[in-house]
Structures are given as structure tokens and as C-alpha cells.
């Protein structure tokens, strides 16, 4: 396997070397040709690539193919400034479809399935990435895109959707809307969910599985690498299988490689991509890698569920806080809905964290004393996990804005 990876890595190095940006940076570490990389130690001398590097070469500066060979562009929105633009050749699109199809098949999806794709279509890779993968597999695709929830449910029933693909937060919103729609769960044929594009916890998986009566699979990806399908769970659900066309590494915060089994930032090198190959791309996603044979028969790298992004980490009074820790606490206690918002503010010189969380319909009509007790228990649980004091604000059911794509969990008023 190592020889095969090194061969793929050399192929990608060869591919990017003519690009002035890479040429300069590789030369600075003494790598002038792919042949200079014979071992993993050689490979790790190559500089890491960060999102800023892509931005600095906006829009097409890091493409490794002439524009006439590029057949599609996608872009990630990004919160500030220009998006990061990625390009695909025919070969890249076909490879992407093959990868996604293989993963869907592993999860038990077949030609007989009807897949409702409620990820956004457009520059975001979610919709089209899943779409081509499903078609490659031969499944029937319903390219509905995100939003228009009532219509989603109607078509889900009328067209006999068996697989739902969307963000976990939208799946939860669909589940909630189903309960109010008058459509009975028994009228639906839904059995599998393909959820990703944002961090979610095991507690959230449980909620979605119970409410929709399905098995929920985690799918991971990012536009800079390809889009959805860089990794996905199999029925064993012992981590997400990283597709063999990608070489993963785990880095510490300074960018130094960590050993297998350590938690850190995932970096990825593409081994087969033509238009937009990436070398040691820092994903900013925190996870742990393992190598081995899964009970499903797949041999290779698996990554644990991405619990958070480096970017999402809030520093509150010097303590690192991730929204997923709060989600875990909320879902470990009864009486709350998995809809929450972290509001951070600075009062005087002190940072304050307020957690707004919805109580569920049944607890909402409870006595004030009951609610106060619930609030106190949640406060204690979150403070135990985070190690800082927080304010809890219980809010009415359905008062926190629902998401049709990636959920917004944090409002940081300090910025
Ligand atoms: O979100 C691609 C995608 C679409 C993946 C549909 C899965 C399903 P971007 O918009 O470029 O691409 O955002 C990539 O989203 O770096 C992670 O931080 C986060 N992310 C994606 N999948 C997961 C997941 C798509 N399963 C960024 N769990 C990544 C946690 C995820 N975070």
C-alpha cells in the first residue's frame, strides 16, 4: 500500500510542479522533481496548503489543466471575501461519481432506491456530488435541492423516496415538519439517510433515526478536495472510510504530523485528481485516523466523525469551547429539542456564553418549578463539560431559526 500511495503522491506532485506557485514553494524545500519524493519523510518536507493559499491564487491560479479541459466549477462560500474556486475535468467528474456510487452501494443503496437530494444544488458541491453518484449507481434521483419543506414531504410520500440526502440539521427540520404535516410516517418508504456537510453528534443521529424511522449514515467531504464522498460510513459505522483516492494525515496545531490514533487536524493529498490536485491540504477539521480492515471487508483508512472545525472553536475566558460539546450535553438530558444557539458577548472585559435551547412541547406546559429544575440541570451538565460558567436561556418550541442547509450554531457578538 505504501508504495502505491507514494506512486500516487508522486503523480500529484508531478501534476502541480508546472504551476508557478507550487514550483517556487517546492524548490524552497529542495524538491524539484517528483523523483525527489521516495519516502514519506520526503513527502512530509512538502509545505502544507491552506485555504489562504487558494484565496491568494483566486480564481484559477492553482488549476493544473488548461481552461479548455475544465468542464465544471464549484466554489465554497466562505464567510469573508472571495470564495475558493475548484475545477473539474471530465475525468474528475467521472471519478467523483464512481467514488460516491461505491460508498452509497456499501451503505446498502441500490438501483431500486429513490434518492431525494435535498442538499443545495449550485456552486455548493452537495447537490451535484450526490446526484452524479446516485446516477452512476443507477438509483432514481429526485433533484429537489434544499428548502420548500412542505413540498419535500409531499414528494417524499408521492414518489416513494427511500433515501434522503441532506444536512443533519435539515433532516431534523424535515422530521419536525413531518410530525405537523398530517402525513403519517407509515405512508413513507424512507429507510436511509445520507447526512453530512456539518458537524453532528451521536445524540443528533439518534434523534433523527428515531423521528424519521431510518438508519442515518455520515458522509464527509469538502469542495477543495472534491465535495461529498471523501469519506463515508458503512453499515458497521465504526468510522468513515476514506476513499483510496485520497491520502490523509493528522497534524497538530503547528502543522506537524501526528501518529495514527491521535486527534488533530486532517490534511489531505489527492492522488488522482487532474484539474485541481491538492497537496497536504489543511481541512481545519478535527478528527482521528485509524488504519485497518473493517468488518464490512474494506481495508484502508477510517476517520472518526468530525466533531468540530478548528474555525468553530470559541475561546471563552481562555477556555476552548466547541458547539458540539453543548449539543452533546443538551441531548444527554430529556426535555429539550436539539435546536440551540450559542451567543457569546463581552460584558465589560468578561466574555459571557449564553446557551439558548428550546424546550420540547411536553416540558413547555410544565410548571415553572419543573422548568427551573431542568434549566439548572442543563447548566450544571454544560459547565461540567466546558469548565466555565454559562447562562441558559430556555426558549419556546420552534423559536430558533431552522436550517435548510448548514446550521448556524453561534452568534459571536465580540466580533
Ligand atoms: O460540505 C461537502 C459535503 C456536501 C459534504 C454534502 C457532505 C455532504 P464545503 O461546503 O466545502 O463542502 O464544506 C466543507 O464542511 O471542511 C467540514 O468542516 C464540514 N463537513 C462536511 N461534511 C461533514 C461531516 C461540503 N460529515 C466542510 N461532519 C468541511 C462534520 C462536515 N463536518
Keywords:
12-stranded mixed β-sheet, alpha/beta, 20 strands, GMP Synthetase, Chain A, domain 3, 4-stranded mixed β-sheet
What is the secondary structure topology, with strand pairs?
Blueprint: H1 2-16, H2 20-28, H3 40-43, H4 51-56, E1 72-76, E2 84-88, H5 90-106, E3 114-117, H6 125-137, E4 140-142, H7 149-158, E5 163-166, H8 168-181, E6 192-196, H9 202-212, E7 215-222, E8 227-233, E9 240-242, E10 246-251, E11 263-270, E12 281-293, E13 299-303, E14 308-309, E15 314-316, E16 319-321, H10 323-332, E17 336-347, E18 350-359, H11 361-364, H12 368-386, E19 391-395, E20 410-412
Parallel strand pairs: 3-4, 3-5, 5-6, 6-7, 17-20, 18-19
Antiparallel strand pairs: 1-2, 7-8, 8-9, 9-13, 10-11, 11-12, 12-13, 12-14, 15-16, 17-18
The protein binds 5'-O-[hydroxy(phenylacetyl)phosphoryl]adenosine.
5'-O-[hydroxy(phenylacetyl)phosphoryl]adenosine binds at residues 76, 119, 124-126, 196-199, 218-223, 227-228, 283, 285, 306, 309.
